[in-house]
Amino acid sequence: MKKHEIIEILRRDLQAASVLRRQAATSVGTANARAALRRFQSARMATTHADLLADAHMRGAAQFFLDDLYGSHDLTQRDADVERIIPMMEKLMPVSALKTIAEAIELDALSESLDRQMAERLGDRFASSDYIDAYCQVASRAERESQIVHIQSLGESLCELARVPLIGGTLAMMRAPAKLAGLYELHQFLERGFTAFKQMKKPKLFVATIVERESEILRNLYAGKAAPFDVV
Question: Which of 70, 174, 201, 206 is 20 to 30 Å apart from 60, CA to CA?
């Protein structure tokens, strides 16, 4: 995929995610419900992938997925950073780095959409059984499967980024200028992802493990299994 094609997709998904976040922020009830849902899902994923978080080589990547890609913290500043420097990114960044950012934003946009539907259904107080009931009712299976496909695509992009020659030094040199330019959040996102995947001996195995487990959970939920999250 060429740079201008990646940029076009990035702009589209960044706008979609930003709109959904702004809408959620306008209502205290909606914001609280979204935060409660994100906390539940983050805790569930931490339990599902506890062995990856405990592994010395995979801990950084697992934490990156939980905190940077599916945590409950505010991503407004990162969105603003990306939108502000899209022209510069297109000129200076290698395709692999652009692709990684675009994949992350695309996953974020889809997750925001699915989470909004779930949050509206569940509110800010719900049990695990409520979540299980709502999961298959508020979105299509195709959308749920697409979310896992995006997780896989992002993981593969990070694997590719970690293999780019000299990019680690480039990111390190960019740290201070990025901070001065007000782009520290975006730079930290890239550097954390690169570092986490670079230190792994088998990054592709890590991605495959995440995708396999999340896919099994999806199948369990749609099959109505009694303990759908028990996959390890």
Answer: 174
